[in-house]
Design brief:
- This protein is mainly α.
- It has a domain of 33 residues.
- Helix content is 79%, strand content 0%.
- The mean pLDDT is 70.
């Protein structure tokens, strides 16, 4: 049985189109998931890094200059020199 060339060509085009469509659909899903990661998780990661870096620098400065955590002490007037 001999299959006509045009019919074979038509099936080949349909198969390739469906293959590309599935590929681009999967690619779109991957892009959406990456955009979700960038939009929702990445800012929280930046905030976390900023907080940790700030705490680390604060502790490093306190150790370097021998400062005490005056903001943790209850006697803030004595630190400000306003005790009477």
């Amino acid at each position: 049985m001999n299959i006509p060339h045009a019919l074979l060509q038509r099936y080949k085009v349909l198969f390739v189109n469906r293959l590309y469509k599935n590929y681009y659909t999967a690619l779109g899903t991957i892009k959406k998931s990456f955009s979700f990661i960038i939009l929702f998780i990445f800012p929280f990661q930046i905030i976390y890094l900023c907080v940790v870096t700030r705490l680390h620098l604060t502790v490093a400065c306190m150790k370097r200059w021998g400062l005490r955590a005056s903001f943790l002490s209850a006697d803030t007037n004595a630190d400000a020199g306003q005790n009477t």
